[in-house]
Amino acid sequence: MSSLKPYLQLTRPANVVTAFTDIFAGMAIVQFAFSDYNPALLLVSTLGLYAGGVVMNDVFDAKLDAIERPERPIPSGKVPLKSAAMLGISLLFLGILAAAMFSALSGMIAIIVAMLAVLYNRFAKHSRIFGPLTMGMCRGGNLILGMSVLPESLQQWSWIALFPIMYIGAITLISQDEVHGGKKTTLYIAALLYLVVLFSQVKLANEHGNLLYTLPFVLLHAWLIFRPLWNAMQNPIGPLIGKAVKAGVISLIVMNASWCVAFGLWPLALLVLALLPLSMLLAKVFAVT
């Protein structure tokens, strides 16, 4: 088990749980029915895509991590670089294959998400603009992957992917200052993007007649993300920024639960929310960033 743990660390297990909830939220938005659709292949797909993406992140950052984060599995020597690269490529391939087995449309979406993940890790990551945008598009694509269960509804609701793009873009923007500390301006921009997402969920919930049920989820999400962000605003040093990033990533589960209840699937919202303790537990064992 000790020899397996560094490989698991590369895949960020706590984050993978949040990716599962993207699929559930996407399915809820297009009003799927479990009796008609089994999401198992799409869950396998998002596992492969997300885990593969974060493994490739560490592969491409191996030289930089040797200086800034020598405790990570690759620079510490616990996982050989070639082995990590093979793991990342294999997981991305698994993600594409599983999606293609569900449908051709899902397979094409998975290919795009995989390409965006590699583009982010190899080229866009260190750009203040294209880094957050590309990473956000990966998460937006993951939500659309969930929506692909009902292709006829995908065109109607795919625009909602703009909100996870904003949300993840905000987190990615913050994370660029995680090692050396950052500027308050960046944190204020992230806060504004967070608010746009939260108010949009409230508005959509109201339009669907589900405002009363959605508000507790949105308020919980706001509390989870703004508390550490406020602390970072008061003192934008690396450790506090890291906590804001970690909270933002884990709280994706609550954001996705909010989408589920906003579109009237409150039992699924509770199921998604139930994954929060699991992700938080995994976050104590495995690094989130």
TrEMBL record:
It is a multi-pass membrane protein. It is found in: Membrane. The keyword Transmembrane applies. The chain crosses the membrane at residues 12-34, 81-99, 156-174, 186-205, 211-230, 265-287. InterPro entries: Prenyltransferase_related, UbiA_prenyltransferase, UbiA_sf. It comes from the Bacteria. GO terms for molecular function: transferase activity, transferring alkyl or aryl (other than methyl) groups. Keywords: Cell membrane, Membrane, Transmembrane, Transmembrane helix. Pfam families: UbiA. CDD domains: PT_UbiA_1. GO terms for cellular component: membrane. NCBIfam families: prenyl_rel_EboC. PANTHER family: CHLOROPHYLL SYNTHASE (PTHR42723), CHLOROPHYLL SYNTHASE, CHLOROPLASTIC (PTHR42723:SF1). This is UbiA-like protein EboC.
